[in-house]
Amino acid sequence: MAFGLGWPEVSIIAVVAILIFGPKRIPELGNALGKTLRGFKEEMKKPDELEDGDEFDPEP
């Protein structure tokens, strides 16, 4: 699994999350996380706003 987490660690994290948030709130949190990741991926796929000849000027 990613980040060096195995199934035992993921299971413990899931049990702790259920204890903290409750079983009814877990789907809401998953939905919010999914929407956030989806939006992030969509923004990463968009081309850069700057054209080839433009320079980035961080100061106004």
Task: Give the C-alpha Rg.
Answer: 19 Å
Give me the strand/helix succession.
Answer: HH
Helix content: 55-70%
- First-to-last CA distance: 45 Å
Structure description:
- The structure is a single chain.
- With 60 residues, the chain is mostly helical.
- The protein has a domain at 8-43.
- The chain has helices at 7-21, 26-45.
- The longest helix has 20 residues, at 26-45.
- The mean pLDDT is 82.
Structural topology:
Layout: H1 7-21, H2 26-45
Features:
58% helix, mainly alpha, elongated, 60 residues
Summary of the model, kept short:
The protein is mainly alpha-helical.
